[in-house]
Specification:
- The protein is an alpha/beta fold.
- It is built from 23 helices and 17 strands.
- The protein is about 45% helix and about 15% strand.
- The chain starts with a strand and ends with a strand.
- Strands 12-13-14-11-15-16-10-17 form an 8-stranded mixed β-sheet. Strands 1-9-2-8-7-3-4 form a 7-stranded parallel β-sheet.
Amino acid sequence: MKEYYQIEDLPIELKNELKDNASFFDNFEGKSLDEQQRIACILNDCDLEIIAGAGTGKTHTLLAKAEYLIEKKNISPDDILFLSFSKSCVEELIEKLNYEVPTSTIHSFGLSLINEYRDKKVYDGKGFKKIFEEYLKTASDKQIDDITTYCENNLNSNDMIKLIELDREIEKFNHLISKSNISSRIKSFIDLFKGKGYVASDFKKIKSKCKHDFENNSGGYYTNKNYLNNMAFIQIVEPVFRFYEGYLFRNHLIDFNDMINKAIDLVEKEGIFNNFKYIFVDEYQDISYKNFQFIKTLKQACNAHLVVVGDDWQSIYGFRDSDITLFNDFCDYFPNANRVFIEKTYRNPQELIDIAGNFIMKNESQFKKSLKSDKSIEKPVKIIFDSDSDSIYNLIYNLSKDNEKVFILGRYNGDIDKFIFDTDLVKKSKGSYKQITNDYESIKNVEYRTIHKAKGLEADYVVLINVFNRDWGFPNKFYPPYFVNLIQDWDYDKKLEEERRLFYVAITRAKKGVYIFTEDYNQSEYIDELIDENKLILNYF
């Protein structure tokens, strides 16, 4: 494995190839590719990992590489497969590609390979609560008793008091189901369970692992409690899982996990009709093990070169079973691979890059990068020790009045509500985000998004809200659900590393400046860290 940072790292024949095709690289879609982007385009006889920092033009680089292969290396567009994890990325690639290159989300591509399931509708995971309610109607008395006991053991004190005050048994049961969030817990478990490729018979392994962990632990109250909780949860979820699988079958449905699991089995047994020569994968830092297994199976079936692009600093989906080690250890999984770093950002000013880079490198597992920018803005990050609604109102009004785009970003869906309370600000649903305006609509180009839904996007200004020191603050301090470690290795330390990456994603959406709202004496530890290390401008409204 070789890492490439500059053209001087290339062998002489590739340097000459770059010179011979300078006109292509000097003007691709009206832009000149930078040195590291050109290196990514010229390395084509190997598997390749492109580590691209925030705002470095990774999509532009992928498009240039594909067209370079087509126009200069005589590769047919049909011999290149573009895969991404989001529909929006796929739509962007299709819109910008000048050739009809096969482009798909990874799940849709998996489904396209499975002939017997093409006539089935896709269950997108929504409405699981209704499936669970249907299960409850068929459950045995023992299964209902198990659910009731489990829910009672997982109620907070206020909900338990309310439970005691209720008279009718059906009211008590409905209260337990609602307040314990049991259906959402089961849905999360099933997603992770199937995401690992597990089937019903694997519950025996899960139970054995749970027992083994208990017997090899030092014991004590919390160990016993976790063991009992885990075993009780498994006892509940196993029959629900079997019912869920039957529900999909009876209703001619296929879920996202089946699209991958069944496609892997098919390709391993029968191969693949399309003999792709190159497989491009976008946002590779968010890959799960099962998706990795699918891509590796495709690569082997086609004997294709694998080209992946991503940024380990922006890996924020561990709770969905993404595994950052699959990105960081790419060259271990694909021994003939090379690695290219793309480090010039076209979005953020250098001062913001430096603050964000120092912040993210507190995580030990991140690649060291030297991001550079031609932009410079003095003091691009400002801390505002005031969470009053009027403060944010005045700020976004002033920021947006010159037609600047403003993102208000929060850790949680409901973070915006306290800021628009008792003002004339209103939120209008626009797909995955909320448009924020006022009664007179004089505030324009302002959107509220969760940070997860802002990833990959940019705005002139970012206003980051509710950065407080509390359990539901930022970072989120709740431990991962105890049952998660039954099927994946994602502990509290890994969760906190991901929270840091999430904060990094938030502040690097900004092209001009970041405003962070907190409260004096209640500020997040991130605020203290940024102030201590960067001498940031503080504002007290």
